[in-house]
Amino acid sequence: MNYESLYSDYSELIIKNNNIESDMFVKYNVKRGLRNTDGTGVLVGLTEVGDVHAYIMDENEKVPVEGRLRYRGIDIFDLVKGFQDEKRLGFEECVYLLLFGELPNKEELDKFSALLDSRRKLPRAFTEDMILKAPSRDIMNKLARAVLASYSYDSNPDDTSVENTLRQCIDLIARFPAMAAYGYQAKSHYHDGNSLFLHSPKEGASTAENILHMIRPDCSYTRSEVEILDLLLVLHAEHGGGNNSTFATRVVSSSGTDTYSAIAAAIGSLKGPKHGGANIKVMQMMENIKANVKNWSDEGEVSDYLIKILNKQANDGSGLIYGVGHAVYTLSDPRGIVLKKKAQELAKETGNEEEYNLFTLIEKLSPEVFARVKRSDKVVSANVDFYSGFVYKSLGIPHELYTPLFAISRIAGWSAHLLEEIINGGRIIRPAYKNVLGKVAYTPMKDR
Ligand SMILES: CC(=O)SCCNC(=O)CCNC(=O)[C@H](O)C(C)(C)COP(=O)(O)OP(=O)(O)OC[C@H]1O[C@@H](n2cnc3c(N)ncnc32)[C@H](O)[C@@H]1OP(=O)(O)O
Ligand SMILES: O=C([O-])CC(=O)C(=O)O
C-alpha cells in the first residue's frame, strides 16, 4: 500500500468539504481578516503602547495620509533623532519606554541596560540540549522552540503576575540574540557543513553589539555597523496591538496561559511571509527579478515583470510583490522612509548602487502596476520589509537571520502588550464563527 498517495486523495476531500462560498461572508456580514469594508481594522482593543496612523476619515471617507508611528505617544522620527543627536544607541532606551511607559533618565537607563546584560547568557547546557540538538533550517522555528524550552528551565513558569511575567520577558529580550545566533550557527554547521563556533555574549555590550559579536567568526564590528543595526532594532520594536504577531500574543495570553506559550505563538506569526517573513521574501524576489529582467533600469521591462508577479506567473507564484502594501499604511510607512535613506547611504559606500536603483524603481512602479492589475484604488507603498533586507545584506548578515532580527526587536513590543493584556484584558478573547452547514444526519456504515 502506498500511503503517500493518500494525502493527495484526502486533500481533494478536504477542499471539497471546506469550501465556503464568498457570498456567504457578505450575507452574514463577516469582517474577513477582522477588516471593515473600507479596509480599516475592526476595533477589538485599547492600547497605550504603540500607535499606527495612516489615514484620516473625512465624512466617512478614508483619506490616505503619510504614515506616522508612535511608541508610547512619542513619534518614531523624534525618538530616533533623540538618541542619534546625542550619539547614543537607542534600542535599550526604546525597550524601557515600551515596557515601562516613559523615557528613562541616564541612571535608570544604565541600571536597565545592566539588568539586560546580566541576563544574556543562556541557562547551563541549554545551547547543547535545546539548540544544537535537532537544528532547524529555519531560525524562527528554532527560536520558537527555544522559547518553549525556556519553560522547562524556569522554576516559576505559570505565574502570570505582572512581576513574574516581566522577569520572564526581560530574560527573553536579553536572550533572543543568543538563541537566534546559536540557532543560526547550528543550521550553518549541521545543515550547510560550515565550522561551528559559539561566542558567549559580551559583557557590557548593547543588544546590537552582542548580535554582531555572536554571529561573526571573529566577533568584530565597527561603531557604524552597530549604529545601523541598533536603528533597525528600534524601528521594528513595536507596531500597535493589531499586527498579526502582537494580536497573537494578546489572544493566546488572554486564555491565562504562560508567557512562553504566548511568545512562541507570536514568533510563529511573525515568520509568515505576509508579516515579518516578508523581509527574506523581498530579497528572494529581488534575486528572481535580477535574474529575469535584462535591463534593470528599463521601466517597461521591470513593469512587465511586476505584472507577471501579480498575475502569479513569476517569482514564487503567490501573486504578491513582497515589501509592498500594508494593512494600515497608505502613502508611506515611516520605517520604510528611514530604511530607504540608510540603504542609499550603504549602497554608495559599498558601490551597490545598481541594485539600490532597482529597488527604488520597483518601489516607484509597484503602486501603479498594482492599481492597474488589481483594478484597485487602494494606495500601496513600500513597507518596513522592503529595504530592511538590503540593509542587513550590506552589513553582511546572513539572510536566515533577517526575520529573527525582527523578532529580537519585536519581543519588546510583544512583552509590553502581554503586560498590558494581563493588567487590562481580563476576558478571554473569543470571537464568533457562524456555522453555515446546518444539521447533517448520521449515516450508518452500511448505507454510505
Ligand atoms: C511587518 C509587516 O508585516 S509589513 C507587511 C509585510 N508583508 C508584505 O510585504 C507582503 C506583501 N504585502 C501583502 O501581502 C499585503 O499588502 C499585506 C498582507 C501586508 C496587507 O494585506 P491586506 O491588508 O489584506 O491588504 P488589502 O486588504 O488592502 O488587500 C487588497 C488586495 O490587494 C492584494 N495585495 C495587497 N498587497 C499586495 C502586494 N504587495 N502584492 C500583491 N497583492 C497585494 C491583496 O492580496 C488583496 O487581494 P485580493 O482582493 O485579490 O484578495
Ligand atoms: O502592522 C502590521 O500589520 C504589520 C507591521 O507593519 C508590523 O507589525 O510591523
UniProtKB/TrEMBL annotation:
<feature type="active site">
    <location>
        <position position="326"/>
    </location>
</feature>
<dbReference type="GO" id="GO:0036440">
    <property type="term" value="F:citrate synthase activity"/>
</dbReference>
<dbReference type="InterPro" id="IPR002020">
    <property type="entry name" value="Citrate_synthase"/>
</dbReference>
<comment type="pathway">
    <text>Carbohydrate metabolism; tricarboxylic acid cycle.</text>
</comment>
<feature type="active site">
    <location>
        <position position="385"/>
    </location>
</feature>
<dbReference type="InterPro" id="IPR036969">
    <property type="entry name" value="Citrate_synthase_sf"/>
</dbReference>
<keyword id="KW-0808">Transferase</keyword>
<comment type="similarity">
    <text>Belongs to the citrate synthase family.</text>
</comment>
<dbReference type="Pfam" id="PF00285">
    <property type="entry name" value="Citrate_synt"/>
</dbReference>
<dbReference type="GO" id="GO:0006099">
    <property type="term" value="P:tricarboxylic acid cycle"/>
</dbReference>
<dbReference type="InterPro" id="IPR016142">
    <property type="entry name" value="Citrate_synth-like_lrg_a-sub"/>
</dbReference>
<dbReference type="GO" id="GO:0005829">
    <property type="term" value="C:cytosol"/>
</dbReference>
<dbReference type="InterPro" id="IPR024176">
    <property type="entry name" value="Citrate_synthase_bac-typ"/>
</dbReference>
<dbReference type="GO" id="GO:0005975">
    <property type="term" value="P:carbohydrate metabolic process"/>
</dbReference>
<dbReference type="InterPro" id="IPR019810">
    <property type="entry name" value="Citrate_synthase_AS"/>
</dbReference>
<protein>
    <recommendedName>
        <fullName>Citrate synthase</fullName>
    </recommendedName>
</protein>
<dbReference type="InterPro" id="IPR016143">
    <property type="entry name" value="Citrate_synth-like_sm_a-sub"/>
</dbReference>
